Amino acid sequence: MHSLRAAVRHPQFRVGAREMSGVSLGIAAWGLVTGVAMVKSGLSVPLALLMSLTVFAGSAQLAAIPLMAVSAPMWVIWATALCVNLRFVIFSAQWRPFFKRFPLAQRMLLGYFTADLNYVMFMKRFREPRDDEGQLEYFFGGTIVNWLSWQVPSILGIVLADVIPTEWGLGFAGVLALLGLTYSMLSDRATAFAAVVAGCAAVAAFALPFRLHIVVAIAAAVCVGLMIDGGGDAGRRVRVLLLGAAGRRTAPGASS
């Protein structure tokens, strides 16, 4: 893997950082709300800081916090977080052809930085693995901005939880940011139809435990996209659209 200094100097690093900066305000709003929610749910400040830095998954944190607050069994907490984050298995499978050449330890580092929006933006830009396009540099440019946009407000929310009211509804800014990104990807009837199917599937399966309606929505939309397009460009756009939109359904203030 290239050195960090070389990656930062690469033009694609700046492109990735610039494109992620466009939605960083929404990410920051989620981070702030999640940080406040962790402390107000009863977690100590040190534990909340540890959770923010190690878990780095807002939907899993928000799903696990209420269970931790009522002293639920550990296996229930783990199972809930696993179900909420099942979409990252699909993210990783899609990214594997691009990064499989790197050693295991480096791939694990890349996995830690994986998130919904940098997946969507990466897959929109790159169609196939190539060594001469600066794909790794683009990935790091976006993920570093994404990580900072989440962690800095989250830590502020943890430290200042007693003076930041949850009634501000800052998570709604994140929902608006993702809605805008999702709308920009509805480029044809196939993706629009798959998005409608996903929404209907999510509503129909809403009663499932552990937010499994998200997984149902993703599976339904991907199947529809593949049937329509046979795995071509439209099918690829459907996968990117719906996997990224899963983050909107797990955002603070979203109906999830």
Query: Main beta sheet, described?
Result: none
Q: In angstroms, what separates the terminal alpha carbons? A: 38 Å
- Please state the CA-atom Rg, rounded to the nearest Å: 18 Å
- Assembly type of the chains comes to single chain
| Structure classification | mainly alpha
> What portion of residues belong to β-strands?
under 5%
Low-confidence stretches: 246-256
Count all strands and give the number: 0
Mean pLDDT: 78
Estimate the helix proportion, in percent. Answer: over 70%
> Helical segment tally?
14
What does this structure look like?
With 256 residues, the protein is mainly α. It has one domain (4-249). The chain has helices at 4-9, 11-21, 24-40, 45-55, 58-69, 74-84, 87-99, 104-112, 116-125, 135-159, 171-184, 189-204, 213-229, 233-249. It is globular. Residues 246-256 have low confidence and may be disordered.
Keywords:
256 residues, mainly alpha, disordered C terminus
List the helices and strands and how they pair.
Layout: H1 4-9, H2 11-21, H3 24-40, H4 45-55, H5 58-69, H6 74-84, H7 87-99, H8 104-112, H9 116-125, H10 135-159, H11 171-184, H12 189-204, H13 213-229, H14 233-249
Helix pairs in contact: 2-10, 3-5, 3-10, 3-11, 4-10, 5-6, 9-10, 9-14, 11-14, 12-13, 12-14, 13-14
Summarize the structure.
This protein is an all-alpha fold and 256 residues long. It has helices at residues 4-9, 11-21, 24-40, 45-55, 58-69, 74-84, 87-99, 104-112, 116-125, 135-159, 171-184, 189-204, 213-229, 233-249.
